[in-house]
Amino acid sequence: QVQLVESGGGLVQAGGSLRLSCTASYSVYAMGWFRQAPGKEREFVAAIDYEGEKISYTDSVKGRFTISRNNANNAVYLQMNTLKPEDTAVYYCATSFRSARMSKSDIDYWGQGTQVTVSS
Question: How far apart are CA 70 and CA 50, in angstroms?
């Protein structure tokens, strides 16, 4: 079983930046981030494959968020810039052994979540 440990959430003003980190207990093919706002379904944010060649983002974060990974540390990062109040959510790290597309059905393991709050 893969253990995922997330860090980096917090409270920031609109226009600010945060960097989320997630470390896996061992190497996995694809890593990514989802988020869930109060009263809403969990949604895909970004994903990256092992080689860093397949990267995808949901439209609302393109140009503002950057996903990256460090395979030596089994870690994935999400640099979030120009944050907006609508980015407020619990952010979950996720892994898949088979697909960088990372639909919910592809996810093998979830992290515990880290809160990101953007004030206006």
Answer: 9
User: Which residues are CB-contacts of 62 (< 8 A; sequence separation ≥ 6)?
Assistant: none
Bridge partners (DSSP) of residue 63 are: none
* CB-count burial class (<10 Å; 0-12, 13-18, 19+) for 99: middle
* Token duo for residue 64: 């503002």
Q: For residue 104, what are the CA distances in angstroms to 72, 99, 108?
A: 26, 11, 9
- What pLDDT does residue 45 have? 98
> Which residue in the block uniquely carries the two structure tokens 């060649």?
53
Mean pLDDT of the chain: 96
Please tell me the distance from the alpha carbon of residue 22 to that of residue 39, in angstroms, as a whole number.
25
User: How many CA atoms lie within 13 Å of 66's alpha carbon, on the beta-carbon side?
Assistant: 7
Do the Cβ atoms of 8 and 80 come closer than 8 Å? no
Distance CA 30, CA 73 (A): 14
Listed residue (89, 91, 111) closest to 28, CA to CA: 111
Token pair, residue 53, equals 């060649």
pLDDT, residue 10, reads 97
